[in-house]
Design brief:
It comes from Clostridium fungisolvens. Helix content is 72%, strand content 0%. It is mostly helical. Helix 1 crosses helix 7.
């Protein structure tokens, strides 16, 4: 590959493929450089080493993981229905990835243990999405809370157990998700409606 055509997106694609091929424990920046037919030094013009590159791969993976959530946020539906669907998608997105893309999910888990910056950004994005729906619900007269951000943090934490890998194989997982989400939505609803 000609060095002139090298850019961050091409490097991210190659790194993702290397992680999928070798797994997050064995993959390294030299493998990425070899797959692109460049020196590993060429990659340092774009990323400050393996950690920086792996963080960028995981950040993009998390963003792609929640594409459906972004579609839900743009739907023209009442806030209670939107919040139910959003929380259900948050719970299922990582479980689906653990099944359909196990190497990238393993990379995410590895990163979660060593670098919280990307993970924290993803958490804040999730909380902000929930806050936006709660604010929509307040405007619609469906939800009644004084502090939407605080409520969003509480809702996120109440449902975060379902994004943990230990919950993925639970026999009553779907029922538990629905029960918790319905309880949270009832707690947010305006009692006068």
């Amino acid at each position: 590959m000609d060095k002139i055509s090298l850019d961050k997106e091409i490097i991210l694609n190659a790194a993702e493929e290397v992680i999928r091929r070798f797994g997050p424990e064995k993959a390294n920046i030299t493998d990425v450089a070899k797959s692109l037919k460049v020196s590993h030094a060429a990659l340092y013009r774009y990323y400050n080493g393996k950690t920086d590159l792996w963080n960028a791969v995981t950040e993009r993976w998390l963003s792609n993981l929640h594409v459906y959530s972004k579609d839900i946020l743009n739907e023209d539906t009442p806030a209670d229905i939107k919040l139910f669907r959003l929380l259900e998608d948050f719970a299922e997105a990582k479980r689906r990835s653990s099944i359909n893309d196990p190497e990238m999910f393993a990379n995410y888990l590895k990163l979660a243990q060593s670098s919280m910056d990307v993970i924290e950004k993803s958490i804040q994005d999730g909380i902000n999405s929930i806050k936006d729906v709660i604010e929509q619900g307040i405007e619609e007269g469906i939800f009644f809370v004084e502090f939407p951000k605080q409520a969003a943090v509480a809702v996120y934490h109440a449902t975060s157990a379902f994004i943990h890998p230990n919950s993925f194989e639970a026999v009553d997982r779907k029922q538990n998700i629905e029960s918790v989400v319905n309880l949270l939505i009832r707690g947010l609803k305006n009692p006068n409606k």
